[in-house]
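explain this.
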Amino acid sequence: MRRMRGFAVWGAVAVLGAAWPARAAGDAPEADLSYHGVAVLHDGRLDVRLTPRNHGPADVADATVRLRWSVPPAARAPRLPGGCARTGERSVVCRTGALPADGPGERMEAGVWLRGRPAEVTLEIDTVWADGAVDRNRANDRQQVLVLDTGDAYSF
């Protein structure tokens, strides 16, 4: 019976693979994603507001950005926008939605209570997936921001 399930799964994969045309390596569209926003830490709560941007030259139908923090969250569940999901104790991923070439995406907001009311937290932001687009400038979509518990907005 197990062998039969394996054949069924591989058969489904083969059918899906046949339904999606393969893209040659040189045919992948190029896009340059970046994220700009602010992070605020106050009394143990980290709030992040960011806007994804595609510097082009090709449109991106959807992308995924990951947010990671250096301090684990408190027992309270983080306030996550639609299209976001926790992927680990200290990280979430969020869909950006469509990103037109040379234009901004929709602003995103996420907040999390951190364990132990830390005096500082490091926030990491990076692209996980960009709908198959090639990004030759990964420097501007990978960032680390040190956020101090001052209530001030730290820009990135």
